[in-house]
Design a protein that fits this description.
38% of the residues lie in helices and 17% in strands. By secondary structure, it is of the alpha/beta class. An eight-stranded mixed beta sheet has the order 1-2-4-3-5-6-7-8, sandwiched between helices. The chain is globular, with a radius of gyration of 19 Å. The two termini are 31 Å apart. Keywords: Signal. InterPro entries: AB_hydrolase_fold.
Length: 307
């Protein structure tokens, strides 16, 4: 499925009755229920974070904030092209991770950081820092007319971006009604496991790294993730052929979360295997199944845009 050609964001805004606010503030999204000529994309920054907004013809649901991973898709644009999710009537906000894209350090610096200390050099300043950027991003979306004051957002994360989504759910700095993670690291421990498998190396754990692992581990933070009434609707997607992130971590996270969801909210928590999918999603029948699963989950569980 290709990404439809973008139309002018200005045309969309004018057709939808949106406005350009004063003092440098722009309304980037049409009012809920307004109909525009077609899907539009706009590259921008939200509280200093590079972002691409994909705005549908009609906005009915709260925005979805999406993070890419360290490997393909490894940028906000690559993720948008892979998962446009045009069947979901919500603004999609594809976010660049810290130390990637426009915020990337000098060539070779990220690899040096990873070799020196995966925990404090990469995981904390990229994955955990991404989650901590959310309150300012959400405030910027509200200022741009993309999010109602009381509406909760949706979260999506692939691989390391999935770890950011898990951590954001646990920290609860912003309200999320629904989340989907794909081939996600469930925390620093799972990321170290993947790194050791990929490199054949052995990570030298320190007390600080162990503390970061405890703070970021989805299983250890299950009660925090499931807090709220109702708890966030969480779909954990795992490629059946993923050789990088071991599915055992996803299963362990599910097992830790289930008691906190209980029977009443059991339908808001699911682990689903995507047959034929490796770690990095690619054009295939599996990709169509993936898009359908993500779209259905968000369409069912996202807040209304005008909550």
């Amino acid at each position: 499925m290709g990404v439809p050609r973008a139309i002018s964001i200005l045309s969309l805004l004018l057709a939808a009755g949106a406005c350009i606010a004063g003092d440098g503030e722009r309304r980037l999204c049409p009012a809920p229920g307004a109909t525009a000529p077609g899907t539009a994309t706009v590259s921008t920054t939200l509280a200093g974070v590079p972002a691409i907004l994909r705005v549908p013809r009609t906005v009915e649901l709260a925005p979805i904030l999406l993070w890419h991973g360290f490997g393909p898709p490894a940028s906000e644009r690559e993720l948008m092209e892979l998962l446009p999710l045009d069947g979901v009537p919500a603004v999609k906000v594809y976010l660049g991770l810290p130390l990637f894209g426009a915020r990337a350090p000098a060539p070779g610096e990220l690899a040096r950081r990873q070799t020196e200390d995966l925990a404090s050099g990469v995981f904390e300043p990229v994955v955990m820092a991404a989650a901590k950027e959310l309150p300012a991003i959400v405030a910027a979306l509200r200022a741009a007319g993309c999010l109602d004051r009381d509406a909760a957002v949706g979260l999506f994360g692939f691989s390391a971006g999935g770890a950011a989504a898990f951590y954001a759910l646990a920290e609860r700095d912003v309200s999320a009604s629904a989340a989907v993670v794909l081939n996600a690291s469930t925390g620093l421990g799972a990321s170290v496991d993947a790194w050791e498998r990929a490199t054949g190396g052995s990570y030298a754990w320190t007390d600080r790294a162990r503390a970061l692992a405890a703070r970021s581990d989805a299983g250890s933070r299950a009660a925090d993730i499931a807090a709220g009434e109702p708890p966030p609707a969480l779909l954990i997607l795992q490629g059946a052929d993923d050789a990088m992130v071991d599915g055992v971590h996803a299963a362990a996270a599910l097992e830790a979360l289930q008691p906190h969801y209980g029977e009443v909210h059991a339908g808001r928590l699911r682990l689903q295997a995507i047959e034929g999918m490796a770690h990095a999603p690619a054009a295939s029948a599996a990709l169509e199944a993936l898009r359908a699963a993500i779209s259905a989950w968000f369409s069912r569980h996202l807040d209304r845009a005008d909550t």
